[in-house]
Specification:
By secondary structure, the protein is mostly helical. It contains eleven helices and no strands.
Length: 275
């Protein structure tokens, strides 16, 4: 097993981290707080990208669907929400250089499309379409044969995961609201992936001919490898659902306690009515 030292991948990750360091410095210069937990989330997401694209996971993904699936899960299902958490406000307003931010802000059509895609319904629909389209055999095997198509596949998985998490994590707000509908939103999105994972487990023949003859070199049959891949998808989706439900219920309780405290404080300081 060897490392995958693709210069393009290394440059992409390095630029992404460099932009984040720059944005955090700008925020500090303007007395805008970026918590240690927020920064840790971003760097954890970047570390998962390194594991997925630089470690032996990338080389093994060429022969084993289970490792290929693990790579996608690290990049999108785990890496995306961590990175999005890391670039929440105020970092998001300074992540890209000002000329790029201004150019994006002026593209009204792009902004209008993004508003539709980042609604809960729009995000889940886009997620389902892109996820299932890439897992049809012709598209999936095209990514295995052509590096540029494979890179596009990775980026699209990351993008659709970001779309799903934007309504829940609200990256442009300084404080994350704990509305309970967000738990349902994440549950709905994860069910999309769970059905695909269950399909990989239930199938009685390999979905992709690419892996036939390759998995045996690692001591595992193609069908067993495929079932492991489905199990990884299913297991991670269940874990994310449980985490999302617990987190947003906890956050909702915090918001409720805060609102009651503010109401009590307002009531104690308001002038009494004289009978």
């Amino acid at each position: 097993m060897s490392l995958s030292l693709d210069p393009g991948v290394l440059t992409f990750i390095a630029v992404g981290v460099g932009l984040y360091v720059r944005a955090v410095r700008i925020c500090r210069g303007r007395n805008l707080e970026v918590t240690g937990l927020q920064q840790a989330a971003f760097y954890a997401g970047a570390a998962l990208w390194v594991v997925a694209l630089v470690s032996p996971v990338d080389t093994l993904a060429e022969d084993l669907l289970s490792f290929h699936m693990a790579q996608h899960l690290l990049l999108a299902e785990l890496g995306a929400p961590l990175i999005l958490t890391g670039i929440r406000a105020p970092v998001i307003f300074f992540y890209l250089p000002r000329p790029a931010m201004v150019a994006l802000a002026r593209r009204k059509t792009l902004r209008r499309v993004m508003r539709k895609l980042t609604t809960p319904l729009g995000a889940i629909a886009t997620y389902a379409i892109v996820l299932y389209a890439w897992h049809f055999a012709p598209m999936f095997e095209a990514a295995l044969h052509h590096p540029l198509v494979h890179a596009l596949q990775h980026q699209s998985f990351f993008f659709i995961s970001i779309l799903v998490w934007i309504p829940a994590l609200e990256p442009t707000r300084r404080r994350l609201r704990g509305e309970l509908w967000k738990a349902g939103h994440i549950f709905g999105a994860r069910m999309v992936g769970m059905f695909l994972g269950m399909a990989f487990i239930a199938m009685r023949s390999p979905a992709y001919s690419w892996y036939v003859g390759r998995t045996e070199q690692h001591g595992i049959k193609p069908l067993a490898d495929q079932q492991i891949a489905g199990g990884l998808m299913l297991g991670l989706d269940v874990a994310i659902i449980l985490f999302a439900v617990a987190f947003f219920f906890y956050r909702s309780g915090q918001d409720h306690d805060r609102a009651e405290a503010e109401a009590a404080s307002y009531g104690s300081t308001s002038p009494r009515r004289i009978a």
